[in-house]
Amino acid sequence: MERLQGHAPTNEANEAQETDEANGTDEANEVRGSERRPTADTALELLVHGVGGTTPQEMLNDPRTVRITGDDTAAVFRRADDVDAEKNAKRNAQRNAEKDAAQRPEEHRSEPVPEAYVWCNLTSGNGSRALWLLLLPFMVINLAHWMRPTVSDNRKPAVRFYGLLVRLAGLTLTVLLVAAACEVALDLAAWQCAGTQKCAEEHSWLGFLSPAASGDSWWSQPGRRLALASLVPAALTCLLWYLSHRTWSAYESQQPMSREIEPEEENSRAGLGRPGFWYGRRLVARLRVAHTAAGLLTVAAAVGTAAARHDRETGGPAALEAFGLLLDATFVAGAVVVLWVVCRRGRSEHRLDRHLDAALVRWLPVGSVTLLAVTLVYAGWSRPEWRSDHRLPGDTTFGTIALVQGLLVIALGVVAHVLYRAHPDPRTAMRGLAGPAVAMLACALGGVMSGGVSQRVADWLDGTGGTIEGPPVLLTWQASVIPPLLLVVLVLVGWLARRTVLLRRVETAAVERAYENEPKDDTRTRRIASVRAMASLTDRAPRIIGVTSIVTLVLGGLALAGAMATEETPGEAAHGAYPVVRGAAETAQALGSWLIGVGFILFVTWGRRAYKDQSARRTIGILWDVGTFWPRAAHPFAPPCYAERAVPDLTWRIAGWTRATGGRLVLSGHSQGSVLAAAAAWQLKPSVRKRVALLTYGSPLERLYGRWFPAHFGPAALIGLHRDVDCWRNLYRATDPIGGPMRLPVDGDPQVDREALEDPLAYGRTEEHPLPAPILGHSDYQADPAFAEEREKLLARLRPDAVPAPRPGGESGEPRAPRTAPPAA
Predict the structure, then answer these.
(1) What is the Rg, in whole angstroms, of the alpha carbon atoms belonging to the chain?
(2) Nearest Cα residue to 241 out of 364, 379, 94
C-alpha cells in the first residue's frame, strides 16, 4: 500500500490550529472560506465503515490506496488516482472557462471523490487486548450512565443524581474487584493455606511463609505474611491506574475543535453536539484518582484491620492498640475523601474543559500509597503469639458491598422512572429502566467474576479437601444462584425460539406475497423468512435483559439473606431441620462453583479469539463497539472510548475540506460508522452542518441507540439532526438484525427512510443474476442499486445549480427544494 508523505497532520499542528481558533482566527477563516467557490463541481464522499473492521482497499474497491492523513491507528485513504482530484478539477474548470460555452467538453467527473476513514485499529488488535474483557463489568456500568431517559434540561437535579448513583455503583465495583484480589492473596493464600501445615506442604512456594515448614522464620508471622501478600492487590490497583492513564493518552487525548455554542444551539436536545462532549479529561482524571485511592485503601484496610483486631482482642501493647485505632480512623477519613471526590463533580460538556482539579485531589493516590506503607510497617511489627486460624472476616465486607449495590440499583430505578414519567416515549427500552437493569448486570458480573476467581483458587489450594475453610460464605452463596439463573435464561431462550417459529410463519406468508409472480421455491422462501425472523429478535432484547436483571436482583438478595443466616447459625444448626434445603443448597453451590470456573475460562478464550478471528469478532463486535463508543463517565478503568479519537478526526476532516474547497460532501456511514458520522455531524458548526448530506445504511441509530440511549439518540435528537444537515437518507433491510428505519415524522420535510430494500436482490435466477443472489442482511449495502441512486440524489440536492421541483406529499424518491447555500465555515 502506498503512502503519501507529508500529509499527515501532527499533534503540534492540531494544537496550533486549535490555538488559532481560540485566539479568534476562526472568524477570519470563516470570512476567507465564504469567499471561496466550489472547484468545478467538486464532491466528496467520506466513507465510514462499521464493526468488524475492513481495509481501505475493500472500502474504495481499489488495490492502490494512499493514506492522505492520519496514522497507523486511524487514517483517511483515497484511491491513488484521486489524490489530486481537487487540483485536477480546478484546472479543468479554468480550461473550460477559456473555451466557448457551446463547445466546452464535459470534463468534470459525475461521481464524487471517495475517501475511506478506517478506524478499526482503535478497537481491534493483537490477542493481548483480550485482557480488556476482564474490565467488562466496568464497561457495562459505564453504559448505564448513558442510558438515562430523555429530559428537557440536562442540569436538572434528578439528572445529576442519576449520574451520581451510577458513579457510586462504579466505585463499589472497584472496591469489589480489589477485595476479591485481597481475598485470594491475603485470606486464601497467606492466611489460610500458609497457616495450615498440610496445605503449605502441598504448595512448596508457600513454605517460607508457613510456621511449621520454615521453623518460625521472619516471614512466618501472620502480619508479615499479610503485608507481603498485599503487594498482589496493590499491584493490580496500580496496573489499572497505569492502563487507564496509558489508554487515555493513546485514544482519548485528541481534543475536539474548539468552538462556542451558538444561539441557535441553545435549545438543542443533541448532547453529542456540546463542545466538551468528546473530551472528558477532567472527569476521567478525577475518577482515576478516586478509584486508585479506593483500591489502595481497600488493601490497607484488609491488612491494617486484621492487625488492629488482634491487638484489641489480645490486649497487646497500648501503643500498638492506639496506633491501630488511629489507622482505623484514617481509613474512614480516606473513604470519606474518596466519596467526596466521586460525588462532587460530574461531566462538563458545555465547554472544552482543559483544566485539572486541585493538587489535593491529584495527590490523593500518593497519600493512599503512604498510608498503605505505614499500614504494612504496622502489620509487620513482631507479634510472636499471633496465629492464623479460621478465615479472615471477609463476609462483612462482601455482604456490605452486595447490599450497597442492591440499594444503589433500586434507587437508580426510582430516579430513572421519575425521569421517564416526565417525558415518556413508547420506543424507549424498558420504559426508561434500561440503565438500572444494565447496572444490575454489571454488579452481577462483578460478583460472579470475584466469586468465581476466589472459588477456583480455593479449590486449587485445597487439593485434598478439608485443609482450608475456603472463601467467605457469601461468595459461596453467590455461586449457588448461577444454576437457577441459567435455568431462567434457558426459559427465555426457549421463548425466543418459539417466537422465531411464529415469526417465521408470518414472514413466510409475507415473502410469498412479495414474490407471488416468481416461480415458487419453498426452500428459498423458508430461508428468506428465517433470516427475517432472526433479524427481528433484536427488538426482543429489552425484555430479555429486563427479566434477567429482575431475577438477578431477587437471587442476589436471597444469596445475601442465606449467607447472613448461615453466619448467625453456623454448622448443622443452620440446616439441620431442613435436610432437603441443605442438600439442594450444597448441590447448587457445587454446580455453581464449577460453572463459574468453566464460564471464566470460556470467557477469556472467546475473548482472545474475538480479537484474532475476524468472524468471531463480527459476532460480538456490535456489543463491544457499542460499549466502548461512549466516554468513560462512570468508571475510569473501563476500556477506552474510541469515539473520542474518531469523532474529532471526522470533524476536523469535514470542516477542513469544506473550508478549503467549498465543495459538496456526503457523509456515508455503515452500521457503527453511521453512529460516528452522526456524532461528527453534531459536532460541526451549524453553518458547516448545513453543507453536509448524510447517507446511512444498516444503521443502529434508532433501533439500538435511540431505544437504549434516548437522552442522546432519542426522537428529539434525531429530528434535530435531520433539520440541521442539508439532507439525510437512510437505507435498511428487513433481513438486517442491526440496522433499521429512523421512524422520524415527515412534517413537510422529506422523510429520512427509504422503503426497506429488497433482499435478496433476486428471488430466482434472472438475466442480471444468473446465479442465486445471496441474502446480504447487514452487509454489502453498496451492492444494491438503490445506494448509488440515493447518493446521486443527495449530491443533486447539494449542487448549487440544482433546483428540483417541490415534492408532492413528501414522497421518498425525490429531493426537497434546496435551501440557500450558506457560506463556508
Answers:
(1) 30
(2) 364
**Helix locations, 569-714, DSSP H:** 572-575, 579-612, 614-627, 643-661, 672-683, 686-689, 707-708, 710-713
CA-nearest of 775, 764, 753 to 507 is 775
Cα–Cα distance, 781 to 733 (Å, whole number): 9
DSSP 262-313: PGGGTT---GGGSTTTT--HHHHHHHHHHHHHHHHHHHHHHHHHHHHHHHHH
- Residue 72 DSSP one-character state: S
Domain borders along the chain are: 2-121+642-810, 136-255+274-464
Q: Computed from CA positions of residues 78, 83, 86, 91, in that sequence, does the dihedral angle turn out positive or negative? A: negative
Among residues 651, 781, 577, the alpha carbon closest in space to that of 274 is found at: 651
Q: Which of 52, 42, 112 is nearest to 78 (CA)?
A: 112
What is the DSSP secondary structure assignment for residue 731, as one 8-state letter? E
- Helices then strands, counting H and E runs in the chain, come out as 30, 8
pLDDT tens, residue by residue, 275-296: 888 888 888 888 999 999 999 9
Q: What is the DSSP string of 309-375?
A: HHHHHHT--HHHHHHHHHHHHHHHHHHHHHHHHHHH-----SS-------HHHHTHHHHHHHHHHHH
Give the helix/strand (H/E) hosting 66. strand 65-70
pLDDT, residue 9, reads 39
Phi first, then psi: what are they for 697, rounded to 5°? -155, 140
- pLDDT tens column, 732-791: 999 999 999 999 886 656 789 999 999 898 888 888 888 988 999 998 899 899 999 999
Q: Which residue has the cell 461521481?
A: 111
| Residues across the chain | 825
Q: Are 500 and 537 in contact (CB under 8 A)?
A: yes
Provide the pairing of β-strand 2-3 with 43-48: unpaired
CA 246 to chain centre: 18
The grid cell for 678 is 452522526
Q: Which residue in this structure is represented by grid cell 453456623?
A: 570
Region class of 208: left (phi > 0), else alpha (psi between -120 and 50), else beta: alpha
Neighbouring residues of 694: CB distance < 8 A, sequence distance ≥ 6: 666, 667, 669, 677, 678, 681, 721, 725, 727, 728, 729
Tell me the sheet residues that pair with 729: 695
Q: pTM for this one?
A: 0.85
The H or E element spanning position 504 is helix 482-514
| Residue 670, C-alpha cell as written in the block | 455503515
Measure CA 172 to chain center.
Answer: 19
Q: Are 714 and 272 in contact (CB under 8 A)?
A: no
With a cut of 50, say whether residue 811 has pLDDT above it.
no
Q: What whole-number distance in Å separates Cα of residue 467 and Cα of residue 476?
A: 17
Q: Which CATH number fits domain 2-121+642-810: 3.40.50, 2.60.40, 1.10.10, 1.20.1280?
A: 3.40.50
Widest CA span in the chain: 108
Q: Which helix (H) or strand (E) holds 176?
A: helix 157-182
With beta carbons less than 8 A apart as the criterion, state whether 221 and 310 touch. Answer: no
Q: Which residue in this structure is represented by grid cell 470475584?
A: 450
